[in-house]
Amino acid sequence: MLGAIAGDIIGSVYEFSPVKRTNFPLLQEKSAFTDDTVLTVAIAESLLIGKSYAAALKHWGRRYPNAGYGKNFYQWLMSRCSVPYGSWGNGSAMRVSPVGWAFSTLEETLKQATLTAMPTHDHPEGIRGAQAVAGAVWMARRQHSKEEIRDWIEHEIGYTLTATVAEIRQSYTFDVSCAGSVPQAIQCFLEAGNTEEAIRNAVSLGGDADTQACMAGAIGEAMWGIDKALEAAVLEHLPENMLEITEQFRTRFAGQNQK
Fold this sequence. Notes:
The protein is mostly helical. It has a single domain (2-15, 32-253), classed as ADP-ribosylglycohydrolase fold. The chain is 61% helix and 0% strand. The chain has helices at residues 2-11, 35-49, 53-63, 71-78, 91-94, 99-102, 106-117, 124-141, 146-157, 165-171, 182-190, 195-203, 209-224, 228-235, 240-253. Helix 1 runs antiparallel to helix 13 (209-224) and helix 2 (35-49) crosses helix 3. It is globular and about 45 Å long. The two termini are 19 Å apart. The relative contact order is 0.19.
């Protein structure tokens, strides 16, 4: 999950100040975690202690109410009820990466990805986005090749991955839909050689930078790990309660990377 957090923090300063290049400063004074990190930690805690996904999302979201949530999610977060609102946005995909580490089969991973989406993003596109990211993380940490991941995404998830990062970048703009942001983030991973490159590719699209870098970084970490210097720099941006969950999750699940 640290790749997801790294992508979020790195992309945070570019979400509303987009860049169309990969040679940008990774971390700046204003770099900070956003809702992507908060909700990723929430899913991780749910997997660690058995709390329901909805309860964990509300618990962590309310602890950090100013993390940059979308309007509909914020209303759900602060509401006394937990009725899903049919979202097709990429919030389901940005928070799901811990699921890709926690289960032994792809079938169970996809089932749990659906369950993480359902409290809010119960639209078929919201579910598809969550399944795509969780499945790609599962395959990457189980040592499947990028070609195998691409084939699975195209044939089982149904996303088209024909456009290159350079081609996407030319005309790409801010898009919070799963359909318009998740396949592009996956392509950023597919054209990278390490986790940092995946994150840089995602930010360079000039779109929803923190969320797309979160998704690309999550898959990248599952395949390549994360550079120790970058890891240390990212961890400095997290409060103690998030560090605790992150460490507990990595201790329990990081070794589960065998095919």
